[in-house]
Amino acid sequence: MTSVNELLHMATLLDPSLPRQPIDHRPRSYTSAPGSTYLLPADDSERIRLDVQHTSITRGFNDKLVLSPVTIQAGDKVLDSGAGSCSWTLDFADKVPSSVDLYAADVETKLFPAHPPDNIKLFRASVTDLPDEWTGSFQLTHQRLLMSALTSKEWPIALNELFRVTKPGGWVELCEASPELDCPAHHCHKALQAPELAYTASDHELQVATLLPDWLREARFTDVHSVEGKYPVGKWAGADGEHARDGLVGFLRGLKTPILNRGGLGFASTEEEYDAIIDDFERLCDETPNTFGKNYTIYARKPDC
Predict the structure, then answer these.
(1) What pLDDT, in 10s, does the model give residues 78-99?
(2) What positions does the domain Methyltransferase occupy (predicted)?
(3) 86, 120 in Cβ contact below 8 A?
């Protein structure tokens, strides 16, 4: 016989407008920035995950931090918008002259490095409302993996802000993840349903990587290019695979609170069930050769006038 709780759970799946009772779980620290819609935590574990993830993304693009044909010279300014832990900014600082000013901006500063190099300037700023004085300032504007940060209504605003702060003739470079996993054994694993459920419930767009080229053209950028970067996921691929696994699995674990706070969204009815699903996915990644994730770097130029 179906219980009352089971009937209520089935009803909430059929009608998302019905209230869902949050499921008790061990909470992590999330951003306290007013108006932020960021779905992932902002704690020490997330800082470590972002740094590890940076390594995997860079490997997937043949160890290149920049794919656009931008030329960075002494005195230029570069912006990392939505910088997170500043892993990209710190790495890029080693590749350019110290006279290049690197700006890192994020609505949450808890993940910023405590002692950045002198040519890195840290700012609390939203990607949808960058400082007015930055208009036309940056030869390169970089932004990565904000699919968990921006709602579908916020993306056009953020891209228009990037257009505004980029110098005429300068380049914008964005990196976003594909929600699909290339794997012969578990591309339909239940764990991979978690992002779709969490994003849909909060009006975030999961297919950003495929939509960005058109969005950039709508924001008046030209010379738009999209480049795929694949990376192995799991212990079977050695250290690189373990780094990628930790980044991906950590992302899925970070979605626990957004999902359980909404009653589980049909994904899990307890914290233990949620953890078991992700644990099983992690095991399969480690044990299944030829498991690959994909990121896309989309770059474009701001017209000269």
Answers:
(1) 999 999 999 999 999 999 999 9
(2) 78-170
(3) yes
DSSP 164-182: HHEEEEEEEEEEEE-S--B
The answer to whether 173 and 80 are in contact (CB under 8 A) is no
- SS3 of 89, please? helix
Among 150, 138, 147, smallest CA distance to 176 is for 147
Could you tell me which residues are beta bridge partners of residue 293? 231
Q: Each residue of 245-291: pLDDT tens digit?
A: 999 999 999 999 999 999 999 999 999 999 999 999 999 999 999 99
pLDDT digits (tens, 9 = 90+) for 139-180: 999 999 999 999 999 999 999 999 999 999 999 999 999 988
Please choose, from the candidates 157, 165, 119, the residue with its C-alpha nearest in 3D space to the C-alpha of residue 140. 165
Q: Tell me what pLDDT residue 273 has.
A: 98
Q: Are 247 and 56 in contact (CB under 8 A)?
A: yes
204-230 confidence digits (pLDDT tens) = 999 999 999 999 999 999 999 999 999
The two structure tokens encoding residue 74: 């002494």
**301-304-305 Cα angle (round to 5):** 125
For helices 238-254 and 271-287, what crossing angle results, to 10°? 160
Give me 155's structure tokens. 């993306």
| Closest listed residue to residue 242, CA positions, set 183, 285, 290, 280 | 285
